[in-house]
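User: quick one - fold this with magnesium ion bound?
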Amino acid sequence: MAEPFLIGEAMTGGYGAVDILHSCTIAVEPGEIAVIVGPNGAGKSTAMKAVFGMLKLRQGHVRLAGEDITALTPQARVRKGMGFVPQTHNIFTGMTVEENLEMGAFIRDDDAIAETMEQVYALFPILKQKRYQKAGELSGGQRQQVAVGRALMTRPKVLMLDEPTAGVSPIVMDELFDRIIEIARTGLSILMVEQNARQALAIADKGYVLVQGQNRYTDTGKALLADPDVRRSFLGG
Ligand SMILES: Nc1ncnc2c1ncn2[C@@H]1O[C@H](COP(=O)(O)OP(=O)(O)OP(=O)(O)O)[C@@H](O)[C@H]1O
Ligand SMILES: [Mg+2]
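Assistant: Sure. C-alpha cells for the protein plus magnesium ion:
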C-alpha cells in the first residue's frame, strides 16, 4: 500500500518517564476524515499532541507527504501544512474574532490573508457578524468556529481537531460536522478526536478506537458503527 499522507506510526511516548502511547498508529489521507474515539484518559489528546510535535516520542515516527517530520517543532509543522485546534485554550478570549483570525495567520508573509479570512467568514457567517466582538463573549459553538477558523488561516493541508464539538448542543454539533465535511471536500485531511463517537464515526472515512494508548479497533467509520463489540464497549450498545 502507498504511504498515507499523514501518519503517526507506532508512536510510543508520554509525559516524563511514563509512556501513555504504546505503539499507537494514526493516519489520514487527503480529503479524508479520520476520527479517534475511546474512553476518557485513553490517550487521544496525547496522540494528537504526538502527531503535532508537542510530545517527545520514545519510539515511532511521524511522516507528512512522505517526509519524516518526527524531529520538527510544532511551528515547523505548521509551516509544512499542519493546523491544530487543541481541546482547551484554543482561542484568545480577550481578542476580537478578527484578531483571533489574524493571529492564526502568524506564519504567513504573503498578501492573500484577507482572502483566506473571507473564506473563513463564508464558512462561518456568524463570525463575520461578530468580527469586532471579543471571542470570550461568544457562545461555545461560536468559539469553536473561531478556533477552527483560526487554524484554517494558515491554509493547512491537514486540520487536526481535538473535540471540536465539546460542550455544544446536538444541533450545533451537526452544524459543525457539516462544516468539517465541507472543509474535507476541498481536499484537506481532517484528523479529529470526538467524544460524540456515534455521530463522528458516521461521518468518518476511517475510525480509530484507542484504549490505554493502544489501537484497539481500526476500520471505516461505518464498519466500526456496525461492529457489535465496538458498539457494546464504546458506543453504549
Ligand atoms: N500534561 C500531562 N502530564 C502528565 N500526564 C498527563 C498529561 N496530560 C495527560 N496526561 C495523562 O495521560 C493520559 C492520557 O490523557 P489524554 O489527555 O491523552 O486522554 P484523552 O483520551 O484525550 O482523554 P479525554 O477523553 O478525557 O480528553 C491520562 O492518564 C492523563 O492523566
Ligand atoms: Mg482529550
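One thing worth noting: DSSP finds ten helices and ten strands in the chain.
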